[in-house]
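Revision sheet: structure tokens.
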Amino acid sequence: MGLNRFPKSYALWVAMGALYDRLGEDFESLKCIETALQFAPRDNAGGLYDKALTLMKLGCYGDARPIIDDLIERHPEDPKYLTERGGLALDTDIHRRL
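Predicted:
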């Protein structure tokens, strides 16, 4: 396995997180993403975005919101972060009503 040989590989940890995500293993995916972020390049927007998406899947909206807000501040030109922030607001509102 690549991670045995390259345990500090950002790309391999992200790939493992994506695999777990596809398998529906959200907690395992989050663990991999958090490990990847330890070895992330300077601008780790992709890893942070993946972390926020996984947190939202897990219903951890309060933990995801500051990540998305930071990404919006650092990358205002990228509409996907604003879109996720809107979705996050809607999801949070829906859960408050239940």
